[in-house]
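Notes on consecutive records. When two proteins share a document, each keeps its own sequence and its own token line. Never mix them. Below: protein one.
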Amino acid sequence: MRLPTSRTPWLGWCALGAALVLAGCGATAPKPTVSLPDGSSRAETPAERAIQPTSAEELRELVRSVKALLNLSPDIARSQFARRIPATDPAQDRRWLAMAGQLASFNQLSPTTARTVMQAQIDASNFAKKGFYEQWASSPSTLQTRPGLEARVDNAIGTFIKAVGEAQVAMKQPGSRAALEAIALAEMPNRTALSAQTRSIALAPLLALAQP
């Protein structure tokens, strides 16, 4: 004859186990990430999540175009330094501004807006180049400039003006200014003493266009 047994304790343990599993799943849920051009990823910032995904992506492309242009500053500085051209080259600055103005109509931008945002990139590049010149006064750079510098600069300017045009609607969204700042800090970190001020100069007119 079988003795009666109670299944209630076992049911209780099963329920407890399920609850722990569910709690564990919540604790280890992956945080939203953003894919970077080099194939790596970073955590998505709260400010990015606060605006529409399409707008956040357009702002990311805008920041990356700013970064790509600024990343050419060392090569530009080396080229000018080798030819004994001052860090600030007015002829080059005028060419960059003229190019931005010409590209404006192809990217639904007013020439004034295109030149304003381009002037900020020029000012940021010149600031960075002056910093390199000060370093090289006592210890000149021995690195060689990669060929095709002018074409790379022209491509970077074209990409930047295009990104500004495509981000116009995104920058009209409430919260876009905070998102732009957060993206820039995440993707243009303070790696050198020049980083923070260079980034600030380059982004100033773009932040002015964005909504708080």
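Protein two starts on the next line and is unrelated to protein one.
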Amino acid sequence: MIGKFFISFLVICSYMLIPFPIALAMREIFFLPDSYIIGLVIAFVIGFIPLMLFVSSKVFLFPAKHSQSISKTELVKQISNLKVKDCLFTVEQRDDCLVLTSPYMDAKFISLFKAQKISKSYYMKLWFDESKHRVRFKDHLVSSSAVLGVGGFSFNMSAQTGYVTSQIFLLDSSAKLVRFSNAELHKALIEVVTANGWDLNLKMI
């Protein structure tokens, strides 16, 4: 999974960086107007969306291991029972997708000069296409940090979506704190989906 991430990163960087030096060189050689560069920028911005769709459909595609596909109901049941490091995920069936939410903990740090609270919440959305026997997934990570100290109070929040890599601390079934990487969930999901005759694909947009 990490290898696919770096391949997509290189593809996107190449798309964004390589053409512009070439365009600038061509403008200097052929004395092209500035409107040429502006038009090129607009064209590449418009073309970025098809590129992202290509990356998600080709680079982040995990094909089924065989053609004997199980039913959607049975696959949802198996995904709902996934365990990573003995941590069960909360499963919620929505109108158009399945949502897996990890059990998480807020971390609090208190010292002589400040008190800090860090919170991370991770969940994954899954869409099922029965006609193509394909599952699409998207990661979501919401992080927040609150600090109260002698210098005052500050609060920060950020959200990431798409393909997200993160490590957080979870409570397992015996209430022990364990380090969880969602890369482990990706690996378990790839195995259960592809082993049951379905393709797995990243949903970028």
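For the record: The chain has a mean pLDDT of 79.
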